[in-house]
């Protein structure tokens, strides 16, 4: 059977791939902490050992050294989205400028300021605590690969700079001097708005700091139920429980412990490849000395970055929803998505033909209809939650944790005054309408990418309702 050269190249690149998460396949991964095996009390119980839960624990202990803070993780710290993402630690709290301007235009100056302060604080925290997570304030590049996308980048550049950002429009030659691909037409560089990190090592560093501060972390302690006991909330695991004055839920894409959250969040599966390290001559063919994070401008977009070791992480494009908010390990491997990603990689970087991928994995993104975090409470305010980051939680999770602690304390702050914090996104419809709507939207987005970005009637209707989707 005839196989064209590009298909053969992408198939060969996956010949030795392992279905493992690269970030977690690390000899420095900490040994799991013991599960909870007692009935205890606490001032604060945090459910979830990802970024939101870890930041909540650390910040709570810094603010209240006398509190007993207990963190419960169902698997191991960073085993969920925290250890599976691309490692883009962004200043944006609103899933990008355009999304924020479409929803909270009057609040964007303060949201941009809070976002910059948040990213600066993460950088300082990493340095002060000696966390070896390959943190580099590299900035990011938005890429135009179609002619119609160039004007959008120029418009975005003007809008961002009017709000005080320092964005730089790059023509084709300037862009290719940074990172070279025959598909590139123009780019938009934000030099201050994003850092690249090894997300698992950042999480493990946070867990270390939390433990040093006195936080009690129990892994392999999945929470089954919660019960309001008036003075406290009881949080139950298989072999123990925590009676806590305050509870912070940080489970994100995992099936929620509060049923109401499932109205607002759907788990959408995203897939990622990690390459072997580039040799010197391969690196010379692409450049990328600044280690910027990159993403293209399609509705179905790719995000990619290069590690300190010289590996290329390549993810995105497919965003797959499974009916009934389907969630589980059975969705973490999708060979068709991996093959599609490999093919697109070599379309972008044909000069790297022969490069192999060593790791391929998938994970769920906690997607809400406004693409950015939202908050809520239960049990008379003793329980709070944050979720809905939609793929940009590495940086924004620290801000999300701060808001949760504000809400638990009943504090009015610059954060809690925000309409972004006070209001929830529009809910998703129940099944089967949920699956039908997501399927229609996915098809419409693919059509828009094939037709110069033109959004059909279905997408324009969603835009008018404040439900404008990209992948």
What does this structure look like?
Helix content is 33%, strand content 21%. The chain is globular. Among the domains are: 220 residues, FAD/NAD(P)-binding domain, CATH 3.50.50.60; 32 residues. Helix 1 crosses helix 9 and helix 2 packs parallel to helix 7. With 471 residues, the protein is of the alpha/beta class. The protein contains 13 helices and 21 strands. Strands 5, 6, 7, 14, 15, 16, 17, 18 and 19 form a 9-stranded mixed beta sheet that branches. The protein has a 6-stranded mixed beta sheet with strand order 9-3-2-13-21-20. A hairpin with a 5-residue loop joins strand 16 and strand 17.
Q: Describe the global form.
A: globular
Q: How does the helix and strand content classify structurally?
A: alpha/beta
Portion of residues in helices? 25-40%
Average pLDDT number: 95
N→C terminal distance? 35 Å
Report the radius of gyration as a whole number of Å. Answer: 22 Å
Total number of β-strand segments?
A: 21
CATH class of the domain at 32-135 and 193-249 and 370-428: Alpha Beta
CATH superfamily descriptor of the domain at 32-135 and 193-249 and 370-428 = FAD/NAD(P)-binding domain
- Number of helical stretches of at least 4 residues: 13
Amount of beta strand: 15-25%
Low-confidence stretches: none
């Amino acid at each position: 059977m005839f196989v064209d050269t590009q298909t053969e190249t992408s198939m060969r690149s996956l010949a030795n791939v392992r279905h493992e998460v690269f970030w977690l396949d690390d000899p420095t991964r900490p040994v799991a902490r013991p599960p909870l095996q007692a009935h205890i009390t606490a001032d604060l119980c945090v459910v979830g050992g990802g970024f939101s839960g870890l930041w909540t624990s650390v910040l709570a202990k810094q603010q209240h050294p006398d509190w007993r803070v207990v963190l419960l993780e169902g698997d191991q710290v960073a085993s969920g989205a925290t250890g599976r993402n691309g490692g883009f630690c962004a200043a944006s709290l609103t899933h990008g400028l355009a999304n924020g301007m479409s929803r909270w235009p009057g609040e964007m100056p303060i949201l941009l300021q809070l976002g910059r302060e948040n990213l600066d604080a993460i950088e300082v925290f990493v340095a002060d605590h000696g966390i070896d997570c390959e943190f580099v304030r590299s900035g990011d590049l938005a890429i135009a690969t179609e002619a119609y996308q160039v004007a959008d980048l120029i418009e975005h550049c003007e809008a961002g700079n009017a709000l005080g950002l320092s964005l730089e429009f790059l023509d084709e030659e300037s862009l290719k001097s940074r990172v070279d691909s025959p598909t590139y037409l123009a780019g938009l560089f934000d030099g201050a708005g994003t850092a690249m990190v090894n997300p698992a090592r950042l999480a493990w560093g946070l867990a270390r700091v939390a433990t040093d501060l006195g936080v009690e972390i129990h892994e392999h302690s999945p929470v089954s139920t919660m019960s309001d006991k008036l003075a406290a909330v009881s949080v139950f695991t298989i072999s123990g429980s925590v009676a806590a004055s305050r509870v912070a839920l940080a489970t994100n894409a995992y099936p929620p412990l509060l049923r109401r959250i499932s109205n607002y969040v759907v788990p959408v599966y995203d897939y990622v490849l990690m390459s072997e390290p580039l040799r010197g001559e391969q690196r010379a063919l692409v450049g990328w000395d600044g280690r910027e994070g990159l993403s293209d401008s399609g509705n179905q977009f790719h995000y990619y970055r290069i590690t300190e070791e010289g590996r290329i992480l390549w993810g995105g494009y497919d965003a797959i929803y499974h009916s009934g908010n389907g969630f589980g390990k059975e969705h973490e491997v999708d060979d068709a998505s991996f093959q599609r990603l490999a093919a697109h990689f070599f379309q972008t970087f044909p000069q790297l033909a022969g490069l192999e991928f060593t790791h391929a994995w998938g994970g769920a993104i906690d997607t809400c209809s406004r693409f950015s975090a939202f908050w809520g409470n239960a049990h008379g305010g003793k329980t709070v939650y944050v979720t809905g980051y939609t793929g940009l939680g590495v940086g924004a999770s620290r801000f999300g944790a701060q808001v949760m602690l504000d809400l638990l304390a009943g504090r009015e702050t610059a954060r809690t005054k925000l309409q972004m914090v006070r209001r929830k996104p529009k809910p998703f419809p129940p099944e089967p309408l949920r699956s039908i709507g997501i399927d229609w939207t996915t098809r419409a987005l693919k059509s828009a990418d094939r037709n110069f970005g033109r959004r059909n009637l279905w997408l324009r209707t969603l835009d008018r309702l404040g439900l404008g989707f990209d992948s």
